[in-house]
Amino acid sequence: METSKKQKVVALLKALETGETEPIKVINPNKYIQHNIQIEDGLEGFAAFTKILPNGETKVNTIRAFTDGEYVFTHSEYNVFGPKIGFDIFRFEDGKIVEHWDNLQEIQQPNPSGRTMIDGVTELKDLGKTEENKTLVSNFVDDILVNGKMDKLNGYFYGDNYIQHNPYIGDGLSGLGKALGEWAEQGITMKYDMVHQVLGEGNYVLVVSEGQLGGKHTAFYDLFRVEKGKIAEHWDVLETIPAKDKWKNNNSKF
Q1: Which residue ranges make up each domain of the chain?
Q2: How confident is the model at residue 79 (pLDDT cuts 50, 70, 90)?
Q3: Do 5-107 and 127-240 have matching folds?
Q4: I need a surface site. Which of 86, 175, 215, 230 has the fewest CB within 10 A?
Q5: Cβ neighbour number for residue 192 with a 10 Å cutoff
Q6: What is the 8-class DSSP label of residue 143?
Q7: Average pLDDT over all residues of the chain
Q8: Residues 11, 13: Cα–Cα separation, whole Å
Q9: Total H helices, total E strands in the chain
C-alpha cells in the first residue's frame, strides 16, 4: 500500500529525533523553499539544521496531522533546543516536498481551565464538510480577529461552550473576554493584520496570520475544531518574527 503524504511528513518529522535518513528522501533535493527564517534555504539548510540537533535530546511527537490537497499540516510536541509546541506545513509537488512553513512556541503551563497547548480532541471527521468549515473559520478570523466586528462573535459559537488551549486564556467566550480585559489593563494589544493561509481537513481548520502582539511583529497559527457548524475548540502557537537582518533565508515567514 502506498505511503500517504501525511505518513511521509510524520516520518520526516520523527527523523529529527531518530536520525533516520530514508524519510528525508521525500524532500525534493532541487527545490525546497524554507520559510523557517532561522534555517538556511534548500535541502542543504535542512541537513545543516539536523546536524546541530543535540544527540539523544531531540524529541518529536506529532499529535495531529491533516492533508489539504498538496499540503500537509501537523501539530506536534517537540524537544528541540527546549520543549516547544509547533505547527508545520509542507507543500508537495509531484510527490516530493518543495516548501515548508512552521511556527514554534515554548511550552507554557496549563491555562486557567487546566488545558495544555497540545491536548484535546484528535478525532478527524466530517470530511465532506471541509470547504464549509474552512469558510466558517475564515469568516470568523476576518470578522473578529482582523476587523474586530465583535457584534458577530456570538454567532460563531454555541453559547459559552468553547474549549480553549491558549495557555493564557480559559474556556468559553467568558474566558476570552476576561483575558482580553486583563491584557487591555496591562496595555497589551493583539491585532491580526493579514491572513496568509487557510488549510483544512474535515472538522479541523488551520489559519496562518500575521500581526502584532504587544507591539511585536508576530506570526499567528490558529487551529480550530468545528462541530455542527460552530467553533468548538481552539489551539494556537504564536512566534515573534525577528528583524530581517537576523534571517537565514530571504523567503519570509509566510
Answers
A1: 5-107, 127-240
A2: very high
A3: yes
A4: 215
A5: 21
A6: I
A7: 94
A8: 5
A9: 4, 10
The CATH code of domain 127-240 reads: 3.10.450.50
d(CA 207, CA 201): 12
The CATH code for residues 5-107 is 3.10.450.50
Is residue 106 classed as helix, strand or coil in its secondary structure?
Answer: strand
What is the SS3 assignment for 165?
A: coil
- The rounded distance, in Å, linking the Cα atoms of 98 and 176 is 38
Q: Which residues pair with residue 76 across a beta bridge?
A: 62, 86
By DSSP bridging, strand 163-164 and strand 59-68 are unpaired
> Grid coordinates 523553499 are at which residue?
33
For 197-226, what is the mean pLDDT?
97
> Residues with Cβ < 8 Å from 243, sequence gap 6 or more?
none
Q: Report percent pLDDT > 90 for the chain.
A: 86
DSSP 8-state symbol, 145: I
